[in-house]
């Protein structure tokens, strides 16, 4: 993992739309389209389906806002920062490096194409925010999503 691969800061919020509006008013943020998806993932307790709702800021440095999902890792963090998201060329290998440095895997969804590759993963250590590793293979999809911010006024 390299510092230059950091591309967003994730913040979990109880009211996604109100937070988007507030950040638009106080800081001039514009937002991508809101995406809602039932994400299949693996946790230490087994396979789960997580109803996710999220949005990215149109401007860099990017913010990712995620709706609270009770009973999951998607709960507001005490620090306000839920995770730092890094691009990864090999999520499995980078995740192993995080684990060897004392971080625990919280959730990791596999690509639904049956390839067995990870799309992204969260790991949490004893201190600091979570680390999210996102496959660079998702970069074109996420870049396309970011373009929706321009259509929304950015």
TrEMBL record:
Name of this protein: Catechol 2,3-dioxygenase or other lactoylglutathione lyase family enzyme
Species: Mycobacterium rhizamassiliense
A Pfam family of this chain: Glyoxalase_4
Domain VOC stretches: 5-136
UniProt xrefs under SUPFAM superfamilies: Glyoxalase/Bleomycin resistance protein/Dihydroxybiphenyl dioxygenase (SSF54593)
InterPro entries from the UniProt entry: Glyas_Bleomycin-R_OHBP_Dase, VOC_core
PROSITE patterns xref list: VOC (PS51819)
Lineage: Bacteria, Bacillati, Actinomycetota, Actinomycetes, Mycobacteriales
Molecular function via GO: dioxygenase activity; lyase activity
Keywords for this protein: Dioxygenase, Lyase, Oxidoreductase
């Amino acid at each position: 993992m390299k510092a230059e691969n950091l591309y967003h800061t994730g913040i979990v919020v109880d009211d996604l739309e109100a937070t988007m509006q507030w950040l638009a008013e106080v800081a001039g943020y514009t937002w991508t389209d809101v995406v809602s998806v039932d994400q299949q993932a693996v946790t230490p307790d087994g396979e789960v389906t997580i109803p996710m709702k999220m949005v990215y800021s149109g401007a860099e440095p990017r913010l990712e806002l995620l709706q609270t999902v009770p009973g999951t890792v998607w709960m507001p963090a005490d620090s306000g920062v839920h995770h730092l998201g890094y691009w990864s060329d090999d999520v499995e290998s980078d995740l192993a490096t995080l684990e060897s440095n004392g971080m625990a895997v919280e959730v990791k969804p596999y690509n639904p194409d049956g390839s067995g590759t990870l799309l992204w993963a969260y790991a949490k250590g004893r201190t600091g925010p979570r680390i999210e590793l996102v496959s660079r293979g998702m970069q074109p999809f996420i870049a396309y999503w970011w373009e929706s911010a321009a259509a929304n006024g950015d």
